[in-house]
């Protein structure tokens, strides 16, 4: 299965470690005027957050060059197929 990374927009704020790529579980909470999904983060994204992953509609990729994420930030999103 090949990834389908799609464009999306953060609907959440999150402080992350600079220099580290993070993948966080997310759900879709609406769409922008352009039709892009607006994402809400579920849990803190730790590897032990099984409940958050079970409830997730997908994962968002937070790039290493950021130390914080603000609402409206463009990110890549990988939907989880059922």
Helix and strand layout, with pairings?
Elements: E1 6-10, E2 14-15, E3 22-31, E4 37-41, H1 50-55, E5 58-62, E6 68-69, E7 74-79
Parallel strand pairs: 1-4
Antiparallel strand pairs: 1-7, 2-6, 3-4, 3-5, 5-7
Multimeric organization: single chain
Number of DSSP helical runs: 1
Note poorly predicted spans. Answer: none
- What summary fits the major beta sheet? 5 strands, mixed, barrel
The radius of gyration is 12 Å
Shape: globular
**Structural class per helix/strand content?**
mainly beta
Order of helices and strands: EEEEHEEE
List keywords for this structure.
82 residues; mainly beta; two-stranded antiparallel ribbon; globular
Structure in words:
The strands form 2 sheets. Strands 1-4-3-5-7 form a 5-stranded mixed β-barrel. The protein has a two-stranded antiparallel sheet with strand order 2-6. The protein is mainly beta and 82 residues long. The two termini are 13 Å apart. It is globular, with a radius of gyration of 12 Å. It has one helix spanning 50-55; strands at 6-10, 14-15, 22-31, 37-41, 58-62, 68-69, 74-79. The model has no long low-confidence stretch (mean pLDDT 90).
């Amino acid at each position: 299965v090949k990834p389908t990374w799609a464009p999306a927009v953060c609907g959440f704020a999150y402080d992350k470690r600079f220099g580290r790529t993070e993948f966080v579980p997310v759900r879709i909470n609406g769409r922008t005027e352009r039709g892009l999904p607006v994402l809400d983060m579920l849990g803190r994204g730790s590897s032990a957050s099984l409940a958050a992953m079970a409830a997730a509609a997908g994962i968002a990729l937070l790039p290493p060059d950021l130390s914080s994420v603000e609402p409206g930030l463009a990110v890549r999103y990988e939907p989880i197929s059922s």
